[in-house]
Amino acid sequence: MRSLQALASVALVLLLSCGGSGLPDSRQVTVTITPSTATISAGATVSLQGNATGFTSSPIVLWGIQESSSHTPVSACGKLADQTPPFPECTFGYVVFASVSEFPSTGVYHAPNTPGTYHVVFTATQVSTYENLQKSATATITVTANQGP
Predict the structure, then answer these.
(1) By the 8 A CB rule, do 125 and 59 touch?
(2) Beta partners for 108?
(3) Is residue 80 exposed (0-12), middle (13-18) or buried (19+ Cβ within 10 Å)?
């Protein structure tokens, strides 16, 4: 099973080897997640759509959980669809998405069993020959306790 970081690195190398026509003005690039807020029960899921405007070519995309950054890289809890849970390192939940090259991108957030407020991060990166342009958007997910019968 390939790790997400290895797959993203391969995609970056492939894009760099093809050259590039330059990057857009960063002020013209907007990255969004829809919905930007959601409330779900502990252990539940919510589908999110990551999109961007202003890039001059399709970006490389990654999903992750902001709270995970103090324990693991943010993208470590962004999982490709061919990876199989459990993910014990993702105590704040995890996001499953199809591919680093599928754009726009759908991510499915899997909430932890612990209620709280968590932040799903969608990052899009356009690569050029000498530099890259990276922008992120964040969705706030409120996870509530399950209601008993």
Answers:
(1) yes
(2) 47, 96
(3) middle
Q: What is the pLDDT of residue 121?
A: 95
Cα first-last separation, the chain:
40
- Residue 33's pLDDT is what? 97
Cβ–Cβ < 8 Å for 131, 21: no
Count CA within 13 A, CB hemisphere, residue 139: 29
Mean pLDDT per 10-residue interval, the chain, length 149 residues: 48 46 78 97 97 87 87 76 91 95 93 96 88 92 84
Residue 42 token pair: 């502990």
pLDDT at 149: 60
3-state secondary structure (DSSP) of residue 146: coil
- Under 8 Å between Cβ of 118 and 111: yes
Q: Is 11 buried (19+), middle (13-18) or exposed (0-12) by CB count in 10 A?
A: middle
Query: What span, in angstroms and rounded, lies between the C-alpha atoms of 134 and 8?
Result: 13
**Residue 87 CB neighbour total at 10 angstroms:** 17
